[in-house]
Write a structure and sequence with these properties.
- The protein has five helices and five strands; from the N terminus they run βααβαβαββα.
- The chain is an alpha/beta fold.
- The chain has a single domain (about 5-150), classed as Rossmann fold (3-Layer(aba) Sandwich).
- The chain has a five-stranded parallel sheet with strand order 2-1-3-4-5, with helices on both faces.
- Strand 3, helix 4 and strand 4 (about 95-100) form a beta-alpha-beta unit.
- The chain is globular, with a radius of gyration of 15 Å.
- The protein binds ligand CA2.
- Ligand CA2 binds near residues 12 and 19.
């Protein structure tokens, strides 16, 4: 059976590669999806790669992941800094959560320094550019292999 990873992207990430390349690089979200699919297939994962500008839709996908995914990789974009509702959904999901940010949020405006969702994350990767998504896939694969070893 394919082990599915949900890779969820929040508001405005559909604009990647089109504006603000100095902060977010030149890769589009479609480029990132391609890189994730390549890396995931090498690791034996299937990928559900999704983007939404709606907080409610993202929360629905997190709830869906509870039964449909072995892990979540999420770049919640601006909702990172505002959404207790998304935090609550992630706390309830029961699968490992990897929080990714393309930019180093700690080198930016003070309001970006706090993440509500980090409290639900196994790990946070930020400042590695789009490569952070692939690092999160590697980290998830490693953690799942380790936990399978310990339970087997
Ligand atoms: O660094 C990241 O990945 C962020 O999650 C990106 C969010 C930002 O609010 C977070 O603080 C850090 C912004 C995503 C919007 O991306 C755009 C890309 C191009 C043009 C405009 C927005």
């Amino acid at each position: 059976m394919t082990r599915a990873v949900f890779i969820l992207n929040g508001p405005n990430l559909n604009l990647l590669g089109v504006r603000e390349p100095d902060i977010y690089g030149r890769m589009t979200l479609a480029d990132i999806e391609r890189a994730c699919r390549r890396r995931a297939s090498a690791l034996g994962f299937g990928v559900e790669f999704r983007q939404s500008n709606s907080e409610g839709e993202l929360i629905g996908w997190v709830q869906e992941a509870r039964t449909a995914a072995v892990g979540i990789i999420i770049n919640a974009a601006a909702l990172t800094h505002t959404s207790v509702a998304l935090l609550d959904a992630l706390l309830a999901v029961g699968v490992p959560v990897y929080e990714v940010h393309i930019s180093n949020i700690f080198r930016r405006e003070p309001f970006r320094h706090h993440s509500y969702i980090s409290a639900a994350a196994t790990a946070v990767i930020c400042g590695c550019g789009a490569f952070g998504y692939e690092l999160a896939l590697e980290a998830l694969a490693e953690a799942l292999a380790r936990s399978a070893q310990h339970s087997g």
